[in-house]
Amino acid sequence: MSGSVQVTRTAAVGFVAAIKAAELPLYNGTTTNYPAETVEQFHAVKKAAIGLFESGCVGPTDRGYYTASLSGHSNPGHAKTPGWANDMVGCYVNQADPPTESED
Q: In the chain, how many domains are there?
């Protein structure tokens, strides 16, 4: 199962809360149908994004704006499966420009 979630531009003071609130998109009509491996990866990548942000390695944690892109692919049992992509998790945390007056 592959998926990706975007955390849109958020002020630093609310960024951790925005990551924690991120949810997987609907799958077969409800998020509860995700395989356990996908849910496991999603929780792990959210922790990774929070860790990167809180480390300060992409900018100050008390000001500015940030975005995040969380993605992954999991196979049943995390087993390499012929014809399927390998398991992976990707996490990007980025500084973002502040909103312009026309975006407010």
A: 1
